[in-house]
C-alpha cells in the first residue's frame, strides 16, 4: 500500500474507534466523570480537609494528578480491550484481516483510538477538577509526555488482553484484579514516603507508581521518584508490549485458525 | 488466459489434529464463474478461508492473480473480495458506515469510498437503508450488505461462501442476476453453495471436494455428461393411477402425479412416446429433472465415502 493509502487505513480505524466510544458515551465518557467528581467531593473536600498537607500541597491538589492519570489509564486500556474483543466476538475483525492493512497499522490505529478515549476522559476529569481546586503546571513537557506515553502503554496492554481473551470474563480480569489494585497502590491517594521502608520498596516495583509520580511532578513539581526514570520506564514498556502485540498479530493469535 | 486463483498442494491440519485439506490443487481462470461444492465439513470454507487470510495454511501455495499470499499478501488481498457464510459485521454500525469503513481499510479516500458505497448499495437495493444499524436489517438484506462491502474496493476476484443460504427464492433469483451481471463485467466469481441448482444455473466450472480432497474439477458440461442416464418428467392429460409398463426404460410416478422416465444417453425419446401412445397416455408437457447435478454430486460423494471409509477402532 502507498503511504497515502496507509494513512487512509490508519485514520479509518481511528475514526471508527472514536465514533464507537462517542456513540456509547453514557457507557464510556459519563461514568469516569461521575466517579471522579465523587472522588473530588469525598476524598478531596470532605476527607481531604481533615488530612491537611501532603507533599507540600493540600490534599485535593495532591490527588488531582493521580486521579487524572487513573482515568487515562483505565479508559485507554478498556477502550481497546472491549472494542477489539467485541470485533473478535462478532467476527467483524475479519473485515480487517481480509484487507491489505499491515499489522502495524492495525495496532497503531487501535492504540490511537484507545489514547483518544483515555486522553479525552483525562481532559474531562481535568476540567472537572478545576471546580474543586486550582491547578498550575510545573513542567508542561513532562505532563504531555507522561500522559501521552502512559495512555499509549495501557492501550497496548488492552490490545494484548483482547488478543488473548476468549470470553467476556477475560477482558475484565486484568482491569479488576491487576489495574485497579496497582493504581490504588500506585500513590494516587498518598505519598509512598508515608509507608514503612519495606512497603516503600515493594511499591517501587509497581509501574503505575512511576507514571502517577511523573505526571504529578509535571503538574505540582513533587514526586516520589525521578520523573525521567519514569519516562524511560514507560518507553521501555511500550517497546516490549508493541513487539509482543505485533508478534501476536503476525501469528494470528486468537483471530486466525 | 491467466488464472485468477491458483492453489497447489494446499494442506491444513487444525490444532486438534483434524486434517481439513489433504493437498488440494485448484486453478480458476480469470473471468470464470466457478463453484466449489461439497458436503458439510468437506473443506470448502477452509479453502476459501486460507485464500482470504482468515485461516493459516499448513502447507502449499496460493496465488491470487499471480500474487503469492506468502510473499505478496497485500497485493493479493487488493484483488480479492470476500463474502463469508456467517454475518461478520458490527451489528451496531450503520449500513453506510460499514461499507465505507471497509473501503478505508483498502486505502480508498473518503469521497471515493462514499461514491463506491453508494453505487453498490443502490445496485443491491440497500441505499434506502444506509442510515439503518445493521442489526435492524432482514437476513436477506444482511447478505446483500456483505456483498456490497466485499465489492466496495472493486475486486477482480469475488469469493462467496454460501451467499444465498436462508434467502427466499425471489431474492435468491435477484442475487443470481446481480452476480451474473458482475461476472459479465469481468469479475471472476467463486462460490460455495448447498443449492446445487444454483451451481448448475450460474457456474461454468465446478470442483467437488470431499474429505479434504478434490474429487472432480472440470466444466459443468463435462461433469453433466458423466451422467449416463437422464430423467425426464412427463405431465399427462389424465392422472396416472398405476405405473405404465414401458420396455427398455424404467419409470415411476412422482409425488406430484407426473411420470418420471429414466432414459439412457443416446436412447432417444421416440420409443417412449410411441409406447405411451399405444397405452393411450397423452403427454401434455415435458421437462428434464432439474437436479441432474445433485444426482451426480451425491453419487461422487457416496463413492468417495466408501473409498475412504476407515473401520472404527475395535470393529472387526
TrEMBL record, chain A:
How this chain sits in the membrane, per its record, is:
Multi-pass membrane protein
Q: Where are its TM segments located?
A: 30-47, 59-78, 104-131, 143-165, 171-192, 228-250
What GO molecular-function term can you cite, just one? Answer: ABC-type transporter activity
Which compartments is it annotated to reside in? Cell inner membrane; Membrane
Q: Which Pfam families match?
A: ABC2_membrane
ABC transmembrane type-2 domain residues = 23-252
Q: Which InterPro entries does this UniProt record tie to the protein? A: ABC-2_transport_permease (IPR052522), ABC2_TM (IPR013525), ABC2_TM_bact-type (IPR047817), ABC_2_transport (IPR000412)
Task: Name the GO cellular-component terms.
Answer: ATP-binding cassette (ABC) transporter complex
Q: Which UniProt keywords apply?
A: Cell membrane, Membrane, Transmembrane, Transmembrane helix, Transport
Q: What is stated as this protein's family in its record? A: Belongs to the ABC-2 integral membrane protein family.
Name of this protein: Transport permease protein
Q: What is the organism field in this record?
A: Marinobacter lutaoensis
UniProtKB/TrEMBL annotation, chain B:
Q: Which organism is it from?
A: Marinobacter lutaoensis
Provide the GO MF annotations for this entry. Answer: ATP binding; ATP hydrolysis activity
ABC transporter domain: which residues?
5-236
> Pfam families, alphabetically?
ABC_tran
Q: Which UniProt keywords apply?
A: ATP-binding, Nucleotide-binding, Transport
Q: What is this protein called in UniProt?
A: ABC transporter
Amino acid at each position: 500500500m502507498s503511504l497515502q493509502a496507509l494513512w487512509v487505513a490508519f485514520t479509518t480505524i481511528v475514526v471508527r474507534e472514536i465514533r464507537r466510544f462517542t456513540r456509547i458515551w453514557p457507557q464510556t465518557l459519563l461514568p469516569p466523570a461521575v466517579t471522579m467528581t465523587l472522588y473530588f467531593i469525598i476524598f478531596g473536600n470532605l476527607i481531604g480537609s481533615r488530612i491537611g498537607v501532603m507533599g507540600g500541597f493540600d490534599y485535593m491538589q495532591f490527588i488531582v494528578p493521580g486521579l487524572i492519570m487513573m482515568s487515562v489509564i483505565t479508559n485507554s486500556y478498556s477502550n481497546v480491550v472491549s472494542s477489539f474483543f467485541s470485533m473478535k466476538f462478532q467476527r467483524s475483525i475479519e473485515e480487517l484481516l481480509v484487507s491489505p492493512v499491515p499489522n502495524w497499522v492495525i495496532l497503531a490505529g487501535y492504540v490511537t483510538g484507545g489514547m483518544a478515549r483515555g486522553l479525552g476522559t483525562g481532559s474531562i476529569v481535568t476540567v472537572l477538577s478545576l471546580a474543586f481546586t486550582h491547578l498550575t503546571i510545573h513542567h508542561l513537557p513532562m505532563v504531555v509526555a507522561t500522559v501521552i506515553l502512559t495512555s499509549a502503554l495501557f492501550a497496548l496492554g488492552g490490545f494484548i488482553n483482547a488478543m488473548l481473551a476468549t470470553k467476556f470474563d477475560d477482558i475484565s480480569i486484568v482491569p479488576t484484579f491487576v489495574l485497579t489494585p496497582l493504581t490504588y497502590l500506585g500513590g494516587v491517594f498518598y505519598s509512598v514516603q508515608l509507608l514503612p521502608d519495606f512497603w516503600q520498596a515493594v511499591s517501587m516495583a509497581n509501574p503505575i507508581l512511576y507514571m502517577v509520580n511523573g505526571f504529578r511532578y509535571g503538574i505540582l513539581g513533587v514526586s516520589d521518584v525521578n520523573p525521567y526514570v519514569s519516562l524511560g520506564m514507560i518507553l521501555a514498556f511500550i517497546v516490549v508490549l508493541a513487539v509482543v502485540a505485533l508478534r501476536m498479530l503476525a501469528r494470528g493469535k486468537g483471530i486466525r485458525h | 488466459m491467466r488464472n485468477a486463483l491458483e492453489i497447489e498442494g494446499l494442506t491444513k491440519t487444525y490444532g486438534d489434529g483434524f486434517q481439513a485439506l489433504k493437498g488440494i490443487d485448484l486453478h480458476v481462470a480469470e473471468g470464470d464463474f466457478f463453484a466449489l461444492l461439497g458436503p458439510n465439513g468437506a473443506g470448502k470454507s477452509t479453502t476459501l478461508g486460507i485464500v482470504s487470510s482468515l485461516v493459516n495454511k499448513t502447507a502449499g501455495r496460493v496465488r491470487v492473480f499471480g500474487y503469492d499470499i506468502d510473499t505478496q499478501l497485500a497485493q493479493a488481498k487488493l484483488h480479492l473480495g470476500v463474502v463469508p457464510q456467517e454475518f461478520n459485521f458490527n451489528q451496531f454500525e450503520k449500513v453506510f458506515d460499514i461499507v465505507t469503513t471497509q473501503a478505508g481499510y483498502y486505502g480508498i479516500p473518503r469521497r471515493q469510498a462514499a461514491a463506491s458505497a453508494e453505487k453498490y448499495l443502490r445496485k443491491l437495493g440497500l441505499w434506502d437503508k444506509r442510515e439503518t444499524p445493521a442489526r435492524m436489517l432482514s437476513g436477506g438484506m444482511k447478505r446483500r450488505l456483505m456483498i456490497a462491502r466485499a465489492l466496495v474496493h472493486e475486486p477482480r476476484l469475488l469469493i462467496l461462501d454460501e451467499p444465498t443460504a436462508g434467502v427466499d427464492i425471489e431474492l435468491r433469483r435477484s442475487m443470481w442476476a446481480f452476480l451474473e451481471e458482475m461476472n459479465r463485467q469481468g469479475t471472476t466469481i467463486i462460490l460455495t453453495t448447498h443449492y446445487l441448482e444454483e451451481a448448475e444455473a450460474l457456474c461454468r466450472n465446478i470442483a467437488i471436494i470431499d474429505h479434504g480432497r478434490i474429487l472432480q474439477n472440470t466444466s459443468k458440461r463435462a461433469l453433466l455428461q458423466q451422467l449416463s442416464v437422464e430423467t425426464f418428467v412427463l405431465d399427462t392429460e389424465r392422472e396416472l393411477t398405476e405405473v405404465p409398463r414401458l420396455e427398455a426404460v424404467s419409470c415411476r410416478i412422482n409425488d406430484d402425479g407426473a411420470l418420471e422416465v429414466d432414459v439412457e444417453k443416446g436412447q432417444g425419446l421416440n420409443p417412449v412416446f410411441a409406447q405411451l401412445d399405444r397405452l393411450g397416455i397423452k403427454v401434455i408437457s415435458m421437462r428434464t429433472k432439474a437436479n441432474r447435478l445433485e444426482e451426480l454430486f451425491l453419487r461422487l460423494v457416496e463413492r468417495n465415502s466408501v473409498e475412504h471409509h476407515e473401520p472404527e477402532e475395535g470393529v472387526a
